[in-house]
Amino acid sequence: MRFPVSRIGALTAALLVLASPLAAATDEPTAPPEFVALSDVDSTILQEIRYTGEHDFVGRPVNGYLEPMCIITRPAAEALRTAQQQLLPRGYTLKVYDCFRPQRSVDDFVAWAEDPDDTEMKAEFYPDIDKSRLFEEGYIAEKSGHSRGSTVDLTLVRTPPAPQPDFVPGQPLTACTAPAGERFPDNMVDMGTGYDCFDTLSNTDDPRVTGEQRANRDLLRDAMKAQGFDGIETEWWHFTFAGEPFPDTYFDFPVARSSLTPADACPSR
Description:
single chain; disordered N terminus; Muramoyl-pentapeptide Carboxypeptidase, domain 2; EC 3.4.13.22; alpha+beta; two-stranded antiparallel ribbon; 25% helix; 7 helices
């Protein structure tokens, strides 16, 4: 079959467009230049980004978490660096579990919460609450401050950090409210519960938390407050930078290095 020269030219142009990098690129949103990788600001802060793996309350990687990294606004990252500098001489390091959380990840949580049959991780993360009550009790919501980019979930770890075993899917689960020696062996100091524990024992000022556990929670809260972070009543690990640059904007770019503006394109500091 023969094509007219004009048609051959059109076909060639179409093939070139399809083969071009621009055509292959996705339409994924990217982060404003105010967002950075925490490791680029302070590489000493430990990171255990739970939602990229299976050791979380849904038991699988969460939609939107493409890489195990903490993305956060620069002002919040710099405040975390200062907190870390204050804690290291005292024998502690920060460890982050979650930072920026895309709206699609929040939507994934909502969809999971609406499935009454998916209770794979109940024994660890919500042992004493029926899944049907997670919305009512405020553990799952349709919006999260994490999506604004200046909220972080974190804890304290003694230095040098002790080794921590990997979570193996299918392994026996222990309630997040169990004593530290019985629940999953996270290398954090004893905060009275595990991370992401859907239980009132996670309330920052729960009166059942005393002694060393109380001292550890207070140390974390004081260190964060000193650098401009506000905690919340219901989760000892959750803090938001008070000077957040996007207090009313909820972003939906994926957690991946490719979402960030290249460092050499940002103004030098």
